[in-house]
């Protein structure tokens, strides 16, 4: 996997996929055509959100990290809402009587909840103490003398 992750666009894409899935289940399409695809999309989105959190948690020096964590948290909240809506949906693409799918959605809900908790912990966690790239006041004064 490429080490450079474009978090902003990837989170945006995840949000758009969540919205697309929500629209699909709202439109009451024929389950023979859409149920498998919706489940594939939910699986992909769950994996995408997991990977984004993993990569973002390793990027503790990223300047926009807090904002990205907030955006990822928003995506997780929408994903959780989507899963709840899908479990409660009464339309054509209703899965209430399909136990394996309900169980899978509940697993996704549990994973999403754990990720939201991890995001909250990361937001509340202080950056690790390090003196590697910190410029002291004396050093800064010396550097700025030329200006």
Beta-strand content estimate = under 5%
- If helices are DSSP runs of H or I spanning 4 or more residues, what is the number of helices? 5
Describe the sheet with the most strands: none
Number of strands: 0
First and last CA, distance: 43 Å
Model regions low in confidence, pLDDT < 50 over at least 5 residues: none
* Topology as a string of helices (H) and strands (E): HHHHH
Topology, pairings included?
Blueprint: H1 7-26, H2 31-58, H3 65-88, H4 99-124, H5 137-144
Helix pairs in contact: 1-2, 1-3, 2-3, 2-4, 3-4
Could you please describe the fold and organization of this structure?
- There is one protein chain.
- The relative contact order is 0.14.
- The chain has one domain.
- With 147 residues, it is mainly alpha-helical.
- The protein contains five helices and no strands.
- The chain is 72% helix and 0% strand.
Attribute tags:
5 helices, single chain, elongated, mainly alpha, 147 residues
Summarize the structure.
The protein is built from 5 helices and no strands.
């Amino acid at each position: 996997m490429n080490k450079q992750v474009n978090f902003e666009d990837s989170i945006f894409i995840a949000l758009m996929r969540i919205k697309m899935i929500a629209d699909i289940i709202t439109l009451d399409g024929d389950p023979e055509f859409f149920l498998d695809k919706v489940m594939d999309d939910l699986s992909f989105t769950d994996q995408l959100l997991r990977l984004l959190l993993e990569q973002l948690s390793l990027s503790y020096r990223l300047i926009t990290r807090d904002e990205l964590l907030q955006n990822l948290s928003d995506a997780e909240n929408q994903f959780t809402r989507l899963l709840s809506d899908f479990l409660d949906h009464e339309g054509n693409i209703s899965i209430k009587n399909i136990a394996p799918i309900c169980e899978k959605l509940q697993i996704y809900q549990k994973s999403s909840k754990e990720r939201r908790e991890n995001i909250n912990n990361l937001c509340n966690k202080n950056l690790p103490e390090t003196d590697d790239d910190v410029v002291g006041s004396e050093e800064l004064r010396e550097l700025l003398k030329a200006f």
